[in-house]
Amino acid sequence: MIWASLKRNPLGLVGLALLIAMLVMALGANWIAPYDPTRQTGEPFEPPSAAHWLGANDIGQDILSELIYGARISLLIGVLAAGIAMVIGTGVGLLAGYYRGAVGILLMRLVDVVLVIPFVPLMVLLAAYLGQNLWNLIAVIGLLIWARPARVIRSQVLSLAEREYVTAARAAGARDGHILIKHILPGVLSLALAQFVLATSSSILIEAYLSFLGLGDPTQKSWGAVLFYAQARNAFLSGAWVWWVIPPGLMITASVLGFALLGFALEEALNPRLKARAATTSWRAPTSPKAKPAVNKSPVSR
């Protein structure tokens, strides 16, 4: 069902193609990258050439190899941070949608607080306080982006909790935990998948932002780290920005765009409200009215 819906969405297919390309790059970095990104293989600030297609950085490391290996770190951070966010968001959404009393109200107020807190200052503060570590970075991102998935999943749980099979399970004496795991959780997993893809897109962008500010892990080669060192070594003030700044920016843009397009396509296919709206507003070619036969109004000859 998901693939059938995705095939009817050209933008979703574009996003899937971009992500497959990124995944192949990350998994095959050992064979695709021309050099070891940690070794000096060229002259400092060497411009693009046949030996170094994207030139070299300030210490002579091949930038193309940095970008290829950086796909591993950027995608790893995006997937793991999104996983943390979805575990928290799915749990909060399930409980907030099923328990509509004090528990549900308290959880939704917590979601509202997370959504209204100034995101960027809190993110920078936590990253600086916890330290420049890959796992700290993943934890910070995951703990700050779970609120939106929680809201979306809660709206679906509110609908599922009123279904006949859930009512029958309650009448049969089933416990709340059994109902949540056996009857409601399977109904939100597909929607959680779409939210996971969108959360991964946000996580990659946030990692690049934090790394650019110098709050990433300095021992890891990510796309954001490449941009940080380009800024720190004044690549923006010299001609090196052409081969040192634009390529990692394009890689970040392509990955975020791929996850966003695929996530929106999955959300439209799996979210009942969006699916119904798409069905009612689908474009149809206007049908031309049938031409009526001409009526001869000329006067009758006598």
Please, could you describe this protein's structure?
The chain has 302 residues and is mainly α. The protein has a domain of 170 residues: Orthogonal Bundle (MetI-like fold), CATH 1.10.3720.10. It contains 14 helices and no strands. Helix 5 runs antiparallel to helix 8 and helix 8 runs antiparallel to helix 10. It is elongated and about 75 Å long. The C terminus is likely disordered.
A few lines on this structure:
The chain has 14 helices and no strands.
Q: What distance separates the N and C termini?
A: 71 Å
Query: What's the count of strands?
Result: 0
- For the report, how would you describe the main beta sheet? none
The assigned CATH architecture of the domain at 74-217 and 254-279 is: Orthogonal Bundle
Poorly predicted residue ranges: 281-288, 297-302
Shape: elongated
Structural class: mainly alpha
User: H/E series, N to C?
Assistant: HHHHHHHHHHHHHH
CATH C-level category of the domain at 74-217 and 254-279 = Mainly Alpha
Helix content: 55-70%
Cα-based radius of gyration, to the nearest Å: 26 Å
Examine the coordinates and then state which fold CATH places here, giving the name of the CATH topology of the domain at 74-217 and 254-279.
Answer: MetI-like fold
CATH superfamily of the domain at 74-217 and 254-279, by name, is MetI-like
